[in-house]
Design goal:
Catalytic activity: uridine + phosphate = alpha-D-ribose 1-phosphate + uracil
Number of domains: 1
CATH architecture: 3-Layer(aba) Sandwich
Shape: globular
Order of helices and strands: EHEEEHEEHHEHEHEH
Oligomer: single chain
Number of helices: 7
Distance between the termini: 28 Å
Largest sheet: 5 strands, mixed, barrel
EC number: 2.4.2.3
CATH topology: Rossmann fold
Structural class: alpha/beta
Radius of gyration: 16 Å
Pfam families: PNP_UDP_1
Domain Nucleoside phosphorylase: 16-210
Number of strands: 9
CATH superfamily: Nucleoside phosphorylase domain
Strand order of the largest sheet: 5-8-7-6-9
GO molecular function, one term: uridine phosphorylase activity
Length: 235
């Protein structure tokens, strides 16, 4: 079946793809970091762009919010030729050691979402990123000296359902932060034999009444994208 959501054709999408949730963030990444970026998709707000980073073809594709949307986009990108899928998003901190704007490199994701569960037909599973991509992200964050944390995250469906008490409970098991897409991307990476990874920027602590100041979040996102692009060149 040809893609019906990411309405692109073969050759539009590079093998290496960054996956922000927000279409406007996809546009910003493309215009800020990529040379000769061309938009190839707009349908349903799933904006996609392809350009070059240091001479290497790279695409940036918005996924929308949540694992179901991210799974659709990932499946269709793979049919279009994508072979490295790297989520660049934001997260809510569960661990008190995380500060606003810090980077989080996911070593694994607790699959609290329904999309991962449906793919697995209820089987227990521990979704992990591609080891080479994970190692490249960690190495680049260290090389640049950006504040970062490496470990377990949780992927959830209901943004407003998680409570500070629930987040603290998961933090006792090593969960650093909550987000909404990584689990199913890691699973699809294994199922479809492509590389998948996730790097995040802390946008708030679970229970905070508002996000961090825009300038703090913006700098964290800029650092995250720098690390992600450099990591893509290594895989």
């Amino acid at each position: 079946m040809s893609p019906i959501h990411v309405r692109a054709k073969e050759g539009d999408v590079a093998e290496r793809v960054l996956l922000p949730g927000d279409p406007y963030r996809a546009e910003w990444i493309a215009k800020t970091f990529l040379e000769g970026a061309v938009q190839y998709a707009t349908h349903r707000g799933l904006w996609g762009y392809t350009g070059r980073y240091k001479g290497v073809p790279v695409s940036v594709q918005a996924t929308g919010m949540g694992a179901p949307s991210a799974a659709i986009v990932a499946e269709e990108l793979i049919t279009l030729g994508a072979r490295v899928l790297l989520r660049v998003g934001t997260c809510g901190a569960a661990d008190e050691a995380l500060a606003p704007g810090d980077l989080v490199i996911a070593q694994g994701a607790v699959p609290l979402d329904g999309a991962t569960r449906q793919y697995l037909e209820g089987l227990p599973y521990a979704p992990l990123p591609d080891p080479l991509l994970f190692r490249a992200l960690w190495a680049q964050a260290e090389a640049k000296g950006y504040p970062h944390h490496v470990g377990l995250i949780a992927t959830e469906d209901a943004f407003y359902a998680t409570t500070p008490e629930g987040a603290r409970r998961w933090a006792r098991y090593g969960v650093l932060a909550f987000e909404m897409e990584a689990s199913v991307l890691f699973l699809l990476g294994r199922m479809r034999k492509v590389k998948a990874g996730t790097i995040l920027t802390v946008s708030n602590r679970i229970g905070d009444p508002e996000l961090v100041p825009p300038e703090v979040l913006g700098e964290g996102v800029r650092r995250m994208v720098e690390v992600a692009l450099e990591a893509l060149l290594q895989v």
